Amino acid sequence: GAVVSQHPSWVICKSGTSVKIECRSLDFQATTMFWYRQFPKQSLMLMATSNEGSKATYEQGVEKDKFLINHASLTLSTLTVTSAHPEDSSFYICSAYTDLATGPLYGYTFGSGTRLTVV
Amino acid sequence: GDSVTQMEGPVTLSEEAFLTINCTYTATGYPSLFWYVQYPGEGLQLLLKATKADDKGSNKGFEATYRKETTSFHLEKGSVQVSDSAVYFCALNDYKLSFGAGTTVTVRA
User: Rounded to an integer, what is the distance from CA A39 to the centroid of its chain?
Assistant: First the structure.
């Protein structure tokens, strides 16, 4: 079936540094990648949507200069949290969407998430 | 805009009990509907889906029927196990996914 590999699964960084999170679709081409943020015991909040080769579309209230999204290929998207601060600590999840396949590979597949802790 | 309203938890059950998690939606079109499950510390896994009215999605003993007349997609399982303890999210798809708040289910042995 469809697999999205998200890396790292957890990261601790110092305040003021930048962290990059990668999402790779392993057996399909993702036409669109979604990035979500999840606070403890809360639902997923969509941060941005990116299409391969295009600039990401950010949801209202999400700082595009802070959360840099790159979707360089149909199998790779990255989220970089720049100048991270403790309030950026959260669980980040990517989701790859494809309409280039049928059957089990069609639709949304989620990464396993990245737990970011900024100290 | 499109939205999902999901039964709030937490829900605590004994093994072999019947589970129902209510989900209703508001949408302008005819979205696809999903149930996702999230185990502690993990991402989301698709549990089941339905793409049109009266479709029934089923997987691992869970079922949900797309009811257009009541704009609902309630999740049910007849006999839960401890391994079903997780957070369950109802979602609809209108190009991008909109999630409900999530319902935490704990099944006790």
Answer: 15
